[in-house]
User: Fold this.
Amino acid sequence: MMLRLTPVAFALIALLTPRAGAIRWQDEKISAASPQRIVEHGIALVPEGRRLFAAMTVRENLELGAFTERAHKEKHAQMERVFTLFPRLFERQRQRAGLLSGGEQQMLALGRALMGLPRLLLLDEPSLGLAPKIVESIFAILAQLHRDGMSLLIVEQNVHAVLALVQRAYILEGGRIVGEGDGKKLLADEHIQAAYLGPLARGGG
Assistant:
């Protein structure tokens, strides 16, 4: 898992074209692949701002995530898994997505991506606009997904939450990498604490 690499994430899902070099995933070059082919390779994105279909129900949004042949075959089993991870979505599966709270919408965006059976999950600002308790819940689920074998690439400004989760992180400031390494080691670094976490992270009042 890594931190703060938006251009890489967009290139991985074919929304940006690399100026040079190549992108390889599981020993196959995917630099020129279509977005659909990228998803078929097992890569899915949870975009910033959720980007749900507001007029459609929770269940309909989830079903859209299982559009590849491989995912469609596992649609019912994966739907049950999503509802197990997010019981709130099960309770609201007939409700329109646009009527959900911000936290519920983030759960739905994550659940929709999971319906595609990804092996690599890209997340762009998953904590944006969410209450602290919801952020804690979302990151706990991300940790569970990683323990279950899924790779995660996270773009996130909530430094404390993401460094506590990731194995490897890159911190960007003014377009330059100013820190990199093990997430928990960066979290304990005094400079990182002073610059990004404030006095409470250092035990101050």
Notes: Residues 1-5, 200-205 have pLDDT under 50 and may be disordered. The chain has eleven helices and eight strands. The beta strands are 2-3, 24-25, 28-29, 43-46, 120-124, 151-155, 168-173, 176-182. The longest strand covers residues 176-182.
